[in-house]
Amino acid sequence: xxxRALILASCLFAGAATHxxxxxxxxPDVALNGTFTARSDGLWATTNEIxxxxxxVVATWTVTSSxxxxxxxxxxxISDQGWTAELVYQSQRWKAAHVIEGWQRCPDGSTAPGEQTxxxxxxxxxxxxxxxxxxxxxQTIGPSGACGVNRSxxxxxxxxxxxxx
Length: 165
Fold this sequence. Notes:
By secondary structure, the protein is mostly beta strands. It is built from one helix and ten strands.
């Protein structure tokens, strides 16, 4: 009986090892390329963690990227709003960031920059259409101390990226 249990355990282990090895070798292509509509949803925006309506922002992005491995992907986002940002893939999420000069308006008429970061991902990595609609966050943070306030202005909105070409 012990001999049969040992044979069964050996077969199960071998099957699991084969299955895991096959899954590791068949990693999906994660490179993201094409033209997309980028939409930041102001209805669900938060300002310093308090719900505050912001106008929706809709732009067209041209995205190019390439991957040397499943975990090492880089690229570029070009927005029709006039900015370009580096694109990086980490922990199953894409991230692009750029600086918006004069983003925060102060009562005295001065301004402060904001760093806008888009973080987004596919809902299912194994879906054949995983690059057609991605979702995540658009977050812009101003510097602490701007406008004489020792707290960063932080605006965060839900974000979707939908393929159009």
